Structure formats: structure tokens, C-alpha cells
Amino acid sequence: MILILAWRNIWRNRRRTLITIASVFFALLFALLMRALQVGTYDHMLRSMLDAYTGYIQVYSTDYYYDRSIDHLFEQDEAVMAGISEIPGVKAAIPRLETFALAITARQTKGVMLLGIDPEREKLLSNPAGRITQGRYYRAGEGGLLLAGRLAAYLGVEPGDTLTLMGMGCQGASAAGLFVVRGILKLPNPDLDRRLIYIDLPSVREYTGCSNMLSSIVINLDDVNQTAAIRDRISHMFSDKTFRVLTYEENSPELIQQIDSDKASGYIFLGLLYLIVGFGVFGTVLMMISERRKETGVMAAIGMQRLKLALVVVTEMLWMGLLGIASSYVVSIPLVWYLQEFPIRFTGEMGEIYLNYGLEPIMPARLDLMVNLWQALIVLLIIFISVIYPVISIFKMKETEALRS
Amino acid sequence: MNVLETRSITRIYKEAAGEIRAVDGISLTFQKGEFAAIVGPSGSGKTTLLNLMGGLDRPDTGSILVDAVDICGLNARQLVDFRLYNIGFVFQAYNLIPVLTAEENVEFIMQLQKRPRAERRQRTHEVLAAVGLADRMKSRPAKLSGGQQQRVAVARALASKPKFVLADEPTANLDSKSAENLLEIMEKLNREESITFIFSTHDPRVVARARRVITLVDGKVIRDETA
Ligand SMILES: Nc1ncnc2c1ncn2[C@@H]1O[C@H](COP(=O)(O)OP(=O)(O)OP(=O)(O)O)[C@@H](O)[C@H]1O
Ligand SMILES: [Mg+2]
């Protein structure tokens, strides 16, 4: 009975009901699309960054984690590397030896980050081979340097030149060496592009005198959502506390913070949007109950309990809300899915900007049912809030006064 | 036996200009099967008295007994149920729920009473036929004339077999022919099914049909005549 009354009531003022439903529909559609694109974009950026450099999980020696000194390296253990690689969901485990050095040319001296890599395995992560702009990548068994583009420009170095590096070696020794520059590459991250030099592991070990040592193992995964679970599994392999296993979130909290604060501004916008919808819904429900004062008085007089009268109004608003929610989902889910499968592709200037950051120039959407569910719950919450006052006024209504109106 | 008894009930409205004794110490008794009109000039307290007798309002002093039960002792929820099961109401206008058909309006009250569906159906047909609207059952109120709407309201009031029916100026919004017709129906129901009707009116022709006429002035009963 309540359902029927409510359903028929909402169609009494067809136009107002449609406007109310439409306001929920458009707000929710917009919110869902915006969130899907936002989440998709962060995801895209985060993934690009993780794939390009940091990986999803890093393993350090505990000492190195607290003090990034060349004295805190650990020995490369192929059994461990293989063990990690075998964990389901792990795409690759990549050895690295990172150290600080001075790059010296006749013209300039500059502090650089020297990243010792396994030329083959590194292809699975930062893939320097794919970023070469001048010269070439290592050939089998060959060593040498790959310079980031802006650094190379600053130092005035070209492929085929030699570059002197100086720095700290293992066990207090100093390190110095002369290396051939094989190639110049362009790094997505401008900061890294100004200070990174790739070097093959054998060369950097020889240069520092740290034979068979690593500063970290970097791990790439198939699915970012598995990060924590796989971190735990890897942690178990290093139960002796001399190693630290960190996720990208633990390792670069600034980045996560930045994304979060960006998301927060999105939330503020959504908040405003929902506030407007809330007022619209509230206005509708106020008009509804004031128009039906007399009728509500009659129903109360002939013996309908207040709770039931209130339920009719709540049900009406729920009908409208659910129609708005349902219609926005029917439209948005296929749309988001489409934008996920066929992302918006930027061309022209915008595309250039993306490319300069080493990002594929796309704005993918991400179909995330949890995110969607939240939006629907918010709309329902708005509806519940907007009926509080009408419900109270129904409980407070005096039959005699309502009948006189 | 008295179906309804008021014992010196008073209803006072406190206004800025002073108090209005809308109902001022009224004691009345009504027997089953009465057909009583409450008359009096505008503002004499007819509506206020009917509201009190119907449990829509509470007296400031005095008591109201329905079948010897003092309804002033009931709480708000109990009072709603009391009205549902004991009293039929017909108001001046806009009695019906606009989104429900005539049939559904009548059935509505029995749904509130949680009567079984078959019984509801049967009773609905019965009372709509009794008010001469068997052929308009599927019409919504907007499609019915004022007189037809009031007849549906009477049918609804009867549907739940109340102890008595209270009608506040049921004919006030009707043309004289419809008013006649409504009164005839009420009279017939009163005569044939001994339904107790208590109604207020301004209309002399309606008054003429009443068997008992109670006249109010300034919240007091000044005359109470049974023909
Ligand atoms: N809610 C109220 N607040 C204040 N005064 C009221 C209220 N209801 C009625 N009154 C006053 O009480 C008195 C009786 O009113 P009531 O409506 O019972 O008269 P009535 O006989 O039904 O009049 P009418 O024939 O015009 O319908 C009037 O003076 C009226 O102004
Ligand atoms: Mg009146």
C-alpha cells in the first residue's frame, strides 16, 4: 500500500519529479565519470612512474634504508632473486646498485646519481633501451654509461665520449673511473633527467670495488592491488631483520600524499555538487508535503499512523533517488567501460605535455564498482537527510490544523 | 445504550486577543441509530465539537466516552487506532486520496485495519453500491463530481463498520441537488442499517431531515430537540 501510494504520488507532478530525478541523474553521472577519469588518470600516472623507475616493491638492507651509504649494500643472491621471481604476480625482480658520484668533464663537474643495472633485466622495468634518443643501448657483454638527456646536455657529452666518475667505494676506498658513453636517453621525470646515469652492474662494481653487491632489489608486479600481499610474502623470505621490504607507498609517501591531496580537491567539488542536489531534493520534498497537508491530515484523521504517513514520503523520495541512481548507472557504466577500454587520447599540445613527462597521452577511465557504490550511497544519504525535516513535521502535525488548511 | 457521551467538555483557544471558549461545557449523549444535526452560526463551535468527539482534538476539561471508554485517556497512537476502528469521518471537501480510485479509497481504510483481501473487496462493492456508485469504482476522485466524491467519502466512512459517523458540513460544497441526494443516502443507511450519523450543517434543508437538532451558540448548547 505504501509502495503504491508513494509511486502514484511521485507522478502527480510529473515535471517536478522528472526534474528531481534528472538532477540526481546528472549529478551522479557527472560524479561517476569524473571519479572514473580521475582514478584512471592517477592510476595511469602512478603506473607509469612505478613502471618507469621505482617498481612496486623495493628490498633494501635495513642499514641502507636508514642511511643510504655504500657501506650498507648487500650481496646479490641469485637464489633469492629467483625465489622472488617465482612468487605469483611478480613480473620481475631487478637488481640495482645505486650510488652517488661526481661526473667530471673538461667543462663541468656535477653530482649525479649512478644507477648500476643489469642491462637485460632492467628492460623489464625502467626499460632504458626504449628511451634512447642518441647513441645506442648496451650490446651483450658490453659496459659503459647511458646519460639522461638534460644531464648530457649540461655536461656537453655525446655518445662515444668518455666521462670521468669519482665517488666513494666500498670499505672506505675512493672510487674513480673513466667510462664510455654509449647512449643518451630521455627520462620522463625531469628531476631524474637532470641527474641520472645508468651504468652496467659489472662496471659499477669494479669502479666502487663492491664486488657482487647490490643496494636494492626492485620488484615489478602484474597488479598494483597485490602490492601489499606480495610485500608480505617477500618479507617472509627475509625473516632475519637485516632486510627491509617496502611498497612504493611506504617508499615514496610524498607521491601518495600528492595524489591524495589532488583527490581531496576532487572531493570538494563533488561535495558542492551534492550540496546543490541536496537542496533540490529538499525543495521537492518540502513542496510535496506542503501541498498535501490537507490530504495528510485526512489520512491521519481516518486512522493512518504517523509512521506510515512518514514512510510514504520517505518511499517517494527513495523511488526518485533510485530512479536517478539507476538511470545514471545504466548510462555511466557502459560509458566508463568504453573510456577504460578506449581511453581519450590527447593530441597536440596536451599530448606533448604528456609525452614530455614520459606518459602515454591518454586519459583512461577506471571502472571501479566500489567507487560507484560510494556515490550511490552518498545520494541515498542526501535523500535520508532531506526527509528528516518532513518526517519530523509529519509527526508533529496536528490533525485539526491540517484539516483546516 | 449510549454510543457516545460528552461530559461537560470544554475547549479553549488561547489567542493574543484573549481566550476563545470554542466549546464551553457541553454534555451530550448519543444513542445507536441516531441521525443528529449540529447547527449554529459560524464560529459557534460545531467543528470544534465534532473534532473533540472524533478524537481528533482533546478537550481542556471534561471527558468523552465512546461505548463507555474514556478516549481522553488514550495516547496519540492509541487514539489513531481508536479512530480507525470506531469512527467514520466525512469532511467538508477533499476527503479522498487523489491518487487512489474510488474503490481503493474505500478499501484503504480496511487495509489499514489489515482486513483480509476478499473481505475488503466484498465490503467495498457493498458500500459503493449502497451510495449508488457501483459503476464508478475505478474512477479517481478528480473524475468524480463533488457529490460523487462525498458519496465515496460516506462509503469509506461506513466501510469499516464504525460505531458512528461524524460529518462536518458534508454538503457545504455541494449544489442543492447533490446535497439532497447525499442526505437521502445517509438517511437510508441510517434507517436500513441503523448507522449513527452526527453531522454539522448550515443548510436548513439538511436540518429539516435530521431527527435530532442540536443548536450551538458561543460554544454552548442552547437547544437540543428530537423530532
Ligand atoms: N485552531 C484554532 N485556534 C484558535 N481559534 C480557533 C481555532 N479553531 C477554532 N477557533 C475558534 O473557535 C471558535 C469555534 O470555531 P469552529 O470552527 O468550531 O466553529 P464552527 O461552528 O465550525 O464555524 P463554521 O460554521 O464557520 O465552520 C471560533 O471562534 C474560531 O475562531
Ligand atoms: Mg466548522
Structure description:
The complex is a heterodimer of chains A (405) and B (227). By secondary structure, chain A is of the alpha+beta class. Chain A is built from 15 helices and 14 strands. In chain A, strands 3-4-9-6-8-7 form a six-stranded mixed beta barrel. Chain A has a two-stranded antiparallel ribbon with strand order 2-10. Chain A has a two-stranded antiparallel sheet with strand order 13-14. The two termini of chain A are 26 Å apart. Chain B has 227 residues and is an alpha/beta fold. Bound molecules: adenosine-5'-triphosphate and magnesium ion. The site of magnesium ion has 3 residues of chain B, from helix 1.
Shape call of chain B:
globular
Main beta sheet of chain B: 6 strands, mixed
Q: How many domains comprise the coordinates of chain A?
A: 2
Percent of residues in helices of chain A: 55-70%
Q: Over all CA atoms, what is the radius of gyration of chain B? A: 17 Å
Outline the fold blueprint:
The complex is a heterodimer of chains A (405) and B (227).
Chain A: H1 2-10, H2 14-54, E1 57-61, H3 62-66, E2 74-75, H4 78-86, E3 90-104, E4 109-117, E5 132-135, E6 145-148, H5 149-155, E7 162-168, E8 174-185, H6 190-193, E9 196-200, H7 201-208, E10 213-214, E11 216-221, H8 227-237, E12 243-247, H9 248-251, H10 253-291, H11 293-302, H12 306-341, E13 344-345, H13 348-356, E14 362-363, H14 369-396, H15 399-404
Parallel strand pairs in A: 4-9, 6-8
Antiparallel strand pairs in A: 1-11, 1-12, 2-10, 3-4, 3-7, 3-11, 5-8, 6-9, 7-8, 13-14
Helix pairs in contact in A: 1-12, 2-10, 2-12, 2-14, 10-14, 12-14
Chain B: E1 2-15, E2 18-31, E3 35-39, H1 46-53, E4 61-66, E5 69-70, H2 76-86, E6 87-90, H3 102-112, H4 117-130, H5 146-159, E7 164-168, H6 176-193, E8 197-200, H7 204-209, E9 212-217, E10 220-226
Parallel strand pairs in B: 3-8, 3-9, 6-7, 7-8
Antiparallel strand pairs in B: 1-2, 1-4, 4-5, 9-10
Helix pairs in contact in B: 3-4, 3-5, 4-5, 5-6
The structure holds adenosine-5'-triphosphate and magnesium ion (MG).
Magnesium ion binds next to helix 1 of chain B.
